[in-house]
Amino acid sequence: MIFSRASLELLASGRVVLALFSVLVLVALLTVPSVLLRRRGRPAAALSWLLALFALPGFGVLAWWAFGRTHLERKKRRRARKHRAFAQARAVPGLQRGTIFDRQMPRRAQGECVFPSRGNRMRLLLDGPDAYAAMEEAIAGARSTIHIAMYIWQNDTTGRRIRDLLVERARAGVQVRVLVDGFGSRGFMRRLGKPLLEAGARVAVFLPSRFTPFDSPRTNFVNHRKILVVDGAVAFTGGMNVGDEYAQRWRDAMVRLEGPAVLDLQHVFLDDWYFATDELVEDDPEPELLAHAGGIDLAIIASGPDSEAWIHDAYFLSLTQAKERIWIATPYFIPGPAILAALRTAAGRGVDVRIVVPAESDVVLVTWASRSFYRMLLHAGVRIFEYGGTMLHGKALVTDHLIGSVGTANIDSRSFRLSFEVGCFFASREPNERLAAWIESLCDAATEVTLEAIARKPLTQKLAESVAHLGSPLL
Questions:
Q1: 400 among known catalytic residues
Q2: I need a labelling partner for 122 at 20 to 30 A (CA). Which of 71, 296, 304, 460 fits?
Q3: Is 264 a catalytic residue?
């Protein structure tokens, strides 16, 4: 049989493709042990990665080594060593017994990542104008220290304004420490850092990222915390980064704290600062401003890839103990099995469960993955609302008429297990009701999702959401 030249070239190219495919499959097979070892205890995540390895040969392998593995164990060990050294060298803020939180959270976590306290004053700061006015007022009035940690610090009007406020305070003799995440705020030192350094401020980057695929693409080890502590007397935390969208457009929530919880937030900041700089900083609180600031029980809860998922556990305990209502606002909603079961069973026992999420997230894949959970939750009696218009970025929870939370963690495995987060849980009726009113206003302005609307979705959209659901343990 005589083959044409074109046929022989086609046959040769086919063999090259087959050989390349075989190599990719072999590399995927060799990657399997790494996936199994590093996702021990998380079978859903392991299966999702295995599916990615073989459904998308080459790309799945690259994604694992670039974003799934990312030398996380080495970073965990380094972080754990620094944390132990910090804890040994510096006293933990005084733990206060008798709060509702120290009776709920495990003793082994208290003083390590969970810091309950009594006698606090707390003010909810709902949306950017209110929050930024309070934070800028605190910075402008600083007399001794300003400690600020941010995940994202934009080089825009708001970012430069906050930077310039810090520069002015540093020139006035205030000790200013700025900590930004190397992934979320990459380019900060080049674009915004020089005036701070020239004014005498200390600036550090949490795990500087060179953003090379196999070296340091830190999507799995980011410092997602947002903390501001002024003079050791007033502190802020919540969902807002530094940027125009947070200050002016997006819906978000922060808290302003006075009392013993300020030292707890400062402790979390200084632990991160020590990790980034090796500088051990002592507190300089003003005792008269901390004692008897108010009457609110608080728990500052920190979690990250170097610890157990304490914020996840605090959410789970709050959901399982609720008797009347569970209202949640979150920008990214990809619940794990425990949170999913807690929401479904709460609705089943008659609790008013409402979840409000953005109609269109700034991450499309997350929107698809979130919607893949809707049908199951709606069947269980959970009410789901999609908030349109501007981006909903707040992370808020109220249960019954006493407990609430504002923090940095989203309801997904990335926040609960792979990022450094901090949450402020409180037990007080007045802020609970105010936060509930804010969430209810979001629901009133949102579109409630129904089973009928889901049934009318085009097949292509249902397929996209189903595919995203397969990858939800990775998000």
A1: yes
A2: 304
A3: no
